[in-house]
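Hello support,

Our group uses your service weekly, and this is the first time we've seen a run hang past the timeout. The protein is Histone-binding protein RBBP4-like N-terminal domain-containing protein. I'm not sure whether the cause is the sequence or the server load. Input pasted verbatim:
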Amino acid sequence: MSLTETERPSNIATDSGFKANDIKEGYQMNEKILNEEYKIWKKTSPLLYDLLYTYSCDSPPLSIQWLNDFKTSINDNNEQYIEANLLMGTHSIKSQNFLKLVSICVPRTLSNDYKQSELQSNIPNSLLKSRQLRVVREWNHPGEVNKLKINKFNNFAASHTNSGDILLFDINDETCKTHKSTLKFHSKEGFGLEWNPHLNKKNLLLSSSEDCKIALWDINFEKLSNELKPSRIISSHENIVNDISWNKSMETVFASVSDDSSYQIHDLRLSTGPIVHITNAHHDPDSDNQFNFPINTVDFNTDIPSLFATGGSDNSIQIWDLRNPSIPLRRFSGHQAPVIGLKFHENYLLSSSIDNRVLIWDLNRLEEGEPDKRKSDYLDPCLSYMHGGHTGKINDADWHPVLENLMATCAEDGLLEIWRPAHLGDEYIEEEQEEEEAEKNEETKDGETKTDDVEMKD
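Update from on-call engineer: The timeout came from a worker crash unrelated to the input. Re-ran successfully.
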């Protein structure tokens, strides 16, 4: 029997209701899983961390970065501790936004330059009683701080605004409450920003934006004007340029990644365009779907000039070697959503994603090969640690450049977390100790053999 005209709208409404209910149930189920995972993490966190501080912010910070410098302080009980400094940007729609320099107290044991005999056996009482963030200084900021980067040579900070402008702040200037200069070029907001890591090129800053362009800024810190223009424009990408990274060994070389699914390598000594241009760089080789995904983030390795990593919306991280730029050296699969942040530190790689997770990868295990993804319980041997302390998309993550294994993460859940993973790298310490012990045993055996030879001669 056919449906009448009056019945059809009712059935259509019913179908729409079913779809709406399915979406609602899926959302509720996802929230339930997130809450359960967070409860499990919270119960096990005392075993997973040497240190874990959690701060609730008035609004979710979009960007954070550690400063290199720190100082050792002594409390009233003659106990020593470290004051580490962190720069963070606020993200508020209704109220004034700020760039904030905050101080965090951490145990003295995190510093590498203290001898084991000098270490205290317990955490100072001052740290146990108070772990509050102390605001050292703050600067007014027009709109939210999309991205911030600190020049490690002079403590000038650059921030990417939601209007496309880039602002320069002098962190050392205690009297100034606003930015020193405005860098004007980009017509849309962006997130790509990085200072040149070489001392003789410390005046160079790169920026990228949703206007599909990369700008190079040559900044004279001694004679800053109120408004600056870029010294060079690069327009080699066909879509949004999401991130950029200077090569840590070659001062004129940098990488860029884009929504056009390509990565490019540029050399400022040449004006003929990128020296490497790899299209369709992120797709799943094990899938029949050959869709090419946007690439969101890139970072060069600090020690190996040819090695760099990219993270994409295919949820993967790819390790590349410039000596063979068309094929990734290795592919990491551990995130369940797009990868939006990467940070190399020695032999480790820190990755962050909108799956609420921050992962640490051990590049020393690259030779062990990729796991068999056909197995349901496969686990990448390079995956060394997972931080599960957030219930919202990770906005930014940073590894302290000096203090041992000290991390900072911020997310859309409004939390800023300072943490140090337990046992990270312990296997290498154990291996070194075993090697030293084996060498001592060999020396002892050699000494005994020589003694026996002498006695036999006598």
